[in-house]
Specification:
This protein has two domains: 143 residues, NAD(P)-binding Rossmann-like Domain (Rossmann fold, 3-Layer(aba) Sandwich), CATH 3.40.50.720; 100 residues, Dihydrodipicolinate Reductase, domain 2 (2-Layer Sandwich). It has seven helices and twelve strands.
C-alpha cells in the first residue's frame, strides 16, 4: 500500500509514519507546512505532490479540507480524513466528494470507541430521562473543543432517544429534558479520555474509554486506509470498518 500522508510532521503524523514502516507499507509522499525529516518526497502543500499512491491519509487540520478534497477528487484517490473541527460547509463538501470517491470520515478511528458508542447508545435508550454529561480530556495542544469523539457520542445518545434534546457546551443554558452536556479539558499529554455519565436521580452510570497512546489511532488509520482501497465511492466510518471485520471472521 502506497500512502500520501498529510500532516506528516505532527505528533500523529510521526506515529503514523512509524506504524506504516513497521507494517511494511510505503510512504509515497509526506506533506506538511513544517519541515519534514523523511526518506521520501516531501512537500509543503498537497497540490504539489506528483507521486502515485493508493490512498491519502490526513492527520493535519480542518483548515486544509478544501485543498485535500480537490486533490483527492482530481487524482481519484481514496481519502481518509482523521482530523476533526470541520465546519458545516466542510462536512457538506466532504459528503459531496464521497459521491465520487471513497472517503473515510469519523471522529475516532478506534474499534474500542465504536463499541463504546454502541454501549452508550444502549444505556441512553434504557434511561431516556437520565441527565447525561460527557467529560472529555485531551492534550493541551489539541485545537478543537469539544472533541470529534465527544460530539459523535452526543449525537448517538440523542438519536437513541428519538432525536429529543440538544448538545450543550459549558454552563450558558439550563439543562432541558434530553439535553447532552459536554465538558472539555485540555491538559498535559493526555492522548484522549472520554467519560459518559448518566444520572437517573437514583443511580449514576459511568462509561469510560481511555486511549493509552497515539499508536491506537495510527493503527486505526492503517486499518481504515487498507479498508478504503478498492471500495466504491461513499462515505465510510469506523462502524463500516467494524462491520466488514465481523463479516470476514
Amino acid at each position: 500500500m502506497r500512502v500520501i500522508l498529510v500532516g506528516a510532521a505532527g505528533r500523529m503524523g510521526l506515529q503514523t509514519r512509524k506504524t506504516l514502516e513497521e507494517n511494511g507499507e510505503t510512504l509515497a509522499a509526506a506533506v506538511d507546512e513544517a519541515q519534514i525529516n523523511a526518506e521520501c518526497p516531501c512537500y509543503r502543500t498537497i497540490a504539489d505532490v506528483k507521486e502515485d499512491a493508493d490512498v491519502i491519509v490526513d492527520f493535519s487540520n480542518a483548515k486544509g479540507t478544501d485543498a485535500l478534497l480537490d486533490f483527492a477528487l482530481k487524482r481519484k484517490l481514496p481519502l481518509l480524513i482523521a482530523t476533526t473541527g470541520q465546519s458545516a460547509a466542510d462536512k457538506r463538501r466532504i459528503a459531496r466528494a464521497a459521491k465520487n470517491i471513497p472517503v473515510f470520515f469519523c471522529g475516532n478511528l478506534s474499534f474500542g470507541v465504536a463499541l463504546f458508542c454502541s454501549l452508550t447508545a444502549k444505556v441512553a435508550e434504557a434511561f431516556p430521562y437520565a441527565d447525561v454529561e460527557i467529560v472529555e480530556t485531551h492534550n493541551a495542544s489539541k485545537a478543537d473543543s469539544p472533541s470529534g469523539t465527544a460530539l459523535m457520542l452526543a449525537r448517538r445518545i440523542i438519536a437513541a432517544r428519538g432525536g429529543v434534546g440538544k448538545i450543550r457546551m459549558g454552563k450558558r443554558h439550563c439543562r432541558q429534558l434530553g439535553d447532552v452536556g459536554i465538558s472539555s479539558l485540555r491538559m498535559g499529554e493526555t492522548a484522549g479520555v472520554h467519560e459518559v455519565l448518566f444520572d437517573t436521580g437514583f443511580q449514576l452510570i459511568t462509561l469510560r474509554h481511555e486511549a493509552k497512546g497515539r499508536e491506537l489511532f495510527a493503527r486505526g488509520a492503517l486499518n481504515a486506509a487498507r479498508f478504503l482501497i478498492g471500495r466504491p465511492a461513499g462515505l465510510y466510518s469506523v462502524k463500516d470498518l467494524s462491520d466488514a471485520r465481523r463479516s470476514a471472521e
